[in-house]
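Our platform keeps sequence and structure together, in a single record for each protein. Such a record has a labelled line for the sequence and another for the backbone structure tokens. The tokens are whole numbers drawn from a learned vocabulary of local backbone shapes. The remainder of this section carries one protein's record, kept here as part of the documentation:
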Amino acid sequence: MSFDAWPWWAMPLLRSAITIAVAAAVGHVLRVVFASRIARLASRSALQWDDIVVSELGRRIPFWCVLIGIALAVQHWPFLPTSQTLITRVLSALGVASVTIAVSGIATGLVRAYGPRATPTAPVSGLSQNIVRIFITVLGTLVIIRSFGYDITPMLTALGVGGLAVALALQQPLSNLFAGLFVSVGRQIRIGDYVRLEMGAEGFVADFNWQSMQIQAPSGNLIVVPNSRVAQVVVTNFSLPQKDMGIGIDLGVAYTSDLGQVERAAVEIAREVMREVPGGVPDFEPSVRFHTFADLGIRFTVNLRVREFTDQSLVKHEFVKRVSARFRSEGIVIPHTLAAPGAAVPPPQLSADS
């Protein structure tokens, strides 16, 4: 069959298909080479930025090659100059969009990898990554609009004029956005910190986003607090300036007790708890401080130290168990009204003769 017998569009279609197929094959080969050799070289480096760049670029190479193939294939068709220009601009817009996505991925990856260096052990919040992603996406969008021949200056002016109306309409979302940004950048509350809000919510900070802060409660439930509320209430951060913290356990003994014996026994038990119970600080030296003459005995506080806020429950549990057993064996009396400060003294039992 002669090529002359083919429809006019058959040869351009065949050439276009071959061009795009070759471009796709080249993209696949480049991706394999890029992923195998260059990625191997990047993995040998102790730095993280090259791994992030190689990973993002390696995923985009096939698409970029196909775009180039389509741009070459368009040349086989007898399009009008206006149509040719439109197709070229569309392909350029797709290329810019792909590059924007790649740059956004690289930037967020760098923020995620190097951001914690500013505050060790504190991961970067989702809010910070989203702000970087949105900023780069806006720049890429403006470049795409400019590539279609539109002047972006009037658009920026219109955005400035309409900014007040938008701010009024989106007052609450914008309030949450900027409050979350200030809290996140201030580094006074970090992901992974154990916090307690004035309203009573407490737990580990799971993440920030543009609208709220997520707190993982000790029960396992997720508490969602608007960022604007977080910025307005008193927040106690039990992980700053350091995670380990001191705790005091109040006890009491009868007036007839030997306070020297009580102090020695309490300190010995506290040392054992610090060494043996997970969460205790082994090199911390516990102390006992007598401080109150109560109704039925003398009150005192045993000072311990735990690695972080959530460890105090187990440490207190073990200390109370061991104190109870030790005091009972040594004959040290703990009046029951001293176990709960301010508890009412039960009325005396009347006999049948009274």
User: Anything to note?
Assistant: The chain has three domains: 8-169, 181-237, 245-338. The radius of gyration is 35 Å. Strands lie at 194-197, 202-208, 212-216, 222-226, 235-237, 245-253, 287-293, 298-306.
